[in-house]
Structures are given as structure tokens and as C-alpha cells.
Design a protein that fits this description.
Length: 186
């Protein structure tokens, strides 16, 4: 059964965050997964990547370019949207994925913003969009993530705490890494 979460979009300047799965540029996201940008991830066969997206709530981050006047080198396979009679091209520049039931639990993973778009508050913009969605889930029990050097971003935008800060001896965190979870080869 697919997630029962309405498609939502947020726009800030020349950037759009959307949960519309039809806009996700699968090959572009997979290209990033195979790069040093996502050193903790690995690319997947296209059909497997599509399955992961279909079983998740995806937040695509796009640079919005007016067709024929973008100057951004937008990919020819980029998404196209019609608004107010004008056609715009969307270039995938970031991504975040929630593995979730859409009610009680969400696991944030696969977060990135391309290097050339960093320093513009776009990761914060994506996290604020995620916060807007999960704040509507009145039965949400747990929102989890693993982070290395970006914990401050998640603290400030989502209000997450490090496990040790929760001060609960009653709960433990377990993690089993499967074969694809091992550190990818350099």
C-alpha cells in the first residue's frame, strides 16, 4: 500500500523542494550516490533505486530554470513543470528521503545538496520542508537519523537530539549493517 501523504511543494528564490515522486530525476540521484558526495552510499540498479523511492517519502531539491534561459547546464532529462503558462526546467540539486509509515515513524536518510549549491541555506530549506510535513503527524513517535558532521543542522531545523542527550537508560539503539551498508570502496 503506498503512503497516504499528499504531495507538497515549497519554493524559495530559484529553488523548489517537492515531495512529488514524478519529479525525482532517478538517474541524477543515482549518479550522486555513486560519487564522493555520498561517500556513505552506493549507486543501485535503476529499478532498485525506483523501488526505494516508491517505498519512501522523497524530498527533491531542484533549481528552477526558465526554459531557454537558465545558463545552469540543466540536464536534458530534467523535470519540466508548467506554471502560469510558462515552462520551467527543474535541475535536481539535492535530495532527502524519509523511510516511514507516514504515521508513527520516520528515518531520514540519503540527504545531500550538490557542492555548487551549498552555502545558500538549501539543506536548511529541505529540513524545514520535512519539518512542515512531520509536524502534521500527530501520532509520530520517533524520527531518527544517523549523522556525522551535520548534527547541528538537524538540531536547529528539526529539533533532534543526540541519543546520549535523551538520558534514557530504558531504550537502546540497535544497528545491523547489511552487505550494502559497509563502507563503500574509495
Amino acid at each position: 500500500m503506498p503512503l497516504d501523504v499528499p504531495v507538497q511543494s515549497w519554493q524559495r528564490d530559484a529553488y523548489l523542494v517537492s515531495t512529488d515522486l514524478a519529479l525525482v530525476q532517478v538517474d541524477e540521484v543515482n549518479r550522486v550516490f555513486e560519487s564522493d558526495v555520498m561517500w556513505w552510499a552506493q549507486g543501485l540498479p535503476r529499478d532498485v533505486m525506483i523501488k526505494t523511492f516508491a517505498n519512501s517519502l522523497c524530498f527533491g531539491l531542484y533549481q528552477v530554470c526558465e526554459d531557454g534561459n537558465d545558463g545552469s547546464g540543466a540536464k536534458p532529462d530534467g523535470g519540466h513543470v508548467e506554471t502560469g503558462g510558462s515552462s520551467r526546467t527543474l535541475e535536481q540539486v539535492g535530495f532527502a528521503r524519509l523511510v516511514t509509515d507516514g504515521v508513527t515513524f520516520a528515518w531520514l536518510t540519503d540527504v545531500y545538496v550538490l557542492q555548487e549549491h551549498r552555502g545558500k541555506g538549501l539543506a536548511r530549506f529541505m529540513m524545514e520542508s520535512i519539518k512542515a510535513v512531520i509536524s502534521e503527524w500527530k501520532y509520530l513517535r520517533r524520527f531518527m537519523l544517523l549523522a556525522s558532521d551535520s548534527m547541528d543542522l538537524y538540531r536547529k531545523t528539526l529539533g533532534v537530539k543526540d541519543w546520549a542527550e535523551l538520558g534514557s537508560d530504558a531504550l537502546g539503539v540497535g544497528l545491523l549493517e547489511g552487505p550494502a551498508g559497509k563502507q563503500p570502496h574509495p
